[in-house]
Amino acid sequence: MKSLTEHLWFEVPNRRGVINITPEIEELIQRSGVTEGLCLVNAMHITASVFINDDEPGLHNDYEFWLEKLAPHAPTSAYQHNRTGEDNADAHLKRQIMGREVVVAVTRGKLDFGPWEQIFYGEFDGKRRKRLLVKIIGE
Amino acid sequence: MKSLTEHLWFEVPNRRGVINITPEIEELIQRSGVTEGLCLVNAMHITASVFINDDEPGLHNDYEFWLEKLAPHAPTSAYQHNRTGEDNADAHLKRQIMGREVVVAVTRGKLDFGPWEQIFYGEFDGKRRKRLLVKIIGE
Amino acid sequence: MKSLTEHLWFEVPNRRGVINITPEIEELIQRSGVTEGLCLVNAMHITASVFINDDEPGLHNDYEFWLEKLAPHAPTSAYQHNRTGEDNADAHLKRQIMGREVVVAVTRGKLDFGPWEQIFYGEFDGKRRKRLLVKIIGE
Fold first, then answer.
1. SS3 state of residue C92
2. Which of B9, B49, C73, C86 reaches 20 to 30 Å from A119, CA-CA?
3. For residue A69, what pLDDT is reported?
């Protein structure tokens, strides 16, 4: 069995943002030498997501508006978590909707993807350096 | 390490629908020859889900009603994504709630499932042929 | 390839509750002898979740309040599923938001986690014994 472990770092300049990380994941799969296996990509921070959807800016705006409706940032006093001195309780909720991780198939040395699938890092509490983990296993 | 890769095709006649795919997954696990391992099942389209829950039609109707409340299809003009000529922005949102994929354990050559667990393909933008991926690895 | 399969049992005394299971998962990873691999942790019941977030009681109260707003328990007659004699339709919905499973990386024999990541069992229909599954594969 082969395996590869890698951390990717991000610093999103705003509170929220979406970054397409598909090219980085493709490259890591090639570097791993795995031709048949599974690849886990997960946020290592609990106010961020990794998810797969469409690389279409209008859709990303729709997500922003929708998540803000389902789990609004303000009033920050509405959340008990924010009594700890944080103001990011909403980010912990948004991340549950969008998910912590994706597991993707590696087939013949490549991401086994449908035509529109792209992997995104979703930041809900940015303006600081945060990590995600890529773990590839297979043979 | 053994592995098996298979695509399953669906054409749901309505915009939305739910299909129990557990028997197909069980059969693929048997065919793979894997006795201990992991099985990934994911939608390859970004307006569909794979999820595990109860095979109870009343519950499926509850999901339909609930998802339509959380992410309504109409008015389609409420979504920026639909300015691209699509009318399926809601489907991209519903799929985030229900999830892209499941990872299930294979133990002694079978799905290692609780008493009510069943795997479903959830379609949110149907009336056309769409695929899902099954990837089984183990030994 | 090595693998380990284990079931953990819980009986949450109330309808809903959250239990930190990180120490149990760490111990199982050590017992498995896997140093590089993947670990799947999933609820085997369809009204419970496994998720990763912060071990902060205020946040857990925020989840409770938020999930009850998105998928209220009452009126139970609002759900078709409850016509089967159940009163737990809301639990099937809440579990979709919080997720069935997590897949986590095992690196150098340990959970490969960010600073605040903790694994939780989330119960939405308690007062009875329920199981979760841990499956570790790797080498």
1. helix
2. B9
3. 98
Report the neighbours of A using a cutoff of 3 or more CB pairs below 8 angstroms: B, C
Note the residue count of chain C: 139
Q: Are strands C129-138 and C2-11 parallel, antiparallel or unpaired?
A: antiparallel
Structure tokens given for A2: 């082969």
Average pLDDT, chain B: 98
- Residues in chain A predicted with pLDDT less than 70, given as ranges, are none
Of A88, A112, A123, nearest in space to A38 by CA: A112
What would the mean pLDDT of C1-10 be, rounded to a whole number?
A: 97
Nearest Cα residue to A93 out of A47, A62, A45, A51: A47
Segment C34-68, tens digit of pLDDT: 999 999 999 999 999 999 999 999 999 999 999 99
**ipTM at complex level:** 0.97
Asked if C1 lies within 8 A of B36 by C-beta distance, the reply is: yes
Residue B94's Cα: distance from chain center in Å? 12
Measured between beta carbons, which residues in chain B are less than 8 angstroms from residue A112? 5, 133, 135
Would an 8 Å CB–CB cutoff place A8 in contact with chain C?
A: no
Strands (E), A12-123: 17-20, 36-43, 48-53, 101-107, 110-111, 118-123
Residues of chain C contacting B97 with CB distance shorter than 8 Å: 96-97
CB contact under 8 A, C99 and A95: no
Residue B78 in tokens: 């409420």
Instruction: Return d(Cα A80, Cα A46) in angstroms, integer.
Output: 17
Q: How far apart are CA C99 and CA B99, in angstroms?
A: 8
Contact indicator for A106, A33 with CB cutoff of 8 Å: no
**Chain mean pLDDT for chain C:** 98
